[in-house]
Specification:
The protein contains no helices and six strands. The chain has strands at 9-12, 18-21, 27-31, 34-40, 46-52, 61-66. The strands form two sheets. Strands 1-2-3 form a three-stranded antiparallel beta sheet, with no helix packed on it.
């Protein structure tokens, strides 16, 4: 882990949805599908991950968000 960076958490919190947290306990994104391969940008200002809309399916799209949860375009 890079010094000063917090761990990324992905998991279900009893809601039937998968949640992406960064840092842990700060929800950035929630989906009915699943989240794969989350990575924080080198400057620590964005997070990228693969958003898989269907549970059990590996079709998905790369999503980039700022740390407030706003999707980048």
């Amino acid at each position: 882990m890079v010094e000063g960076r917090q761990p990324i958490a992905v998991g279900a919190r009893g809601t039937g949805k998968e949640i992406l947290e960064y840092p842990i306990e700060k929800k950035i994104y929630e989906t009915d599908g699943w989240i794969g391969d989350p990575h924080i940008s080198l400057d620590g200002q964005q997070i990228a991950f693969v958003q898989h809309p269907l549970p059990g399916d590996d079709m998905g799209a790369i999503t980039v968000m700022d740390l407030s949860g706003k999707q980048e375009r």
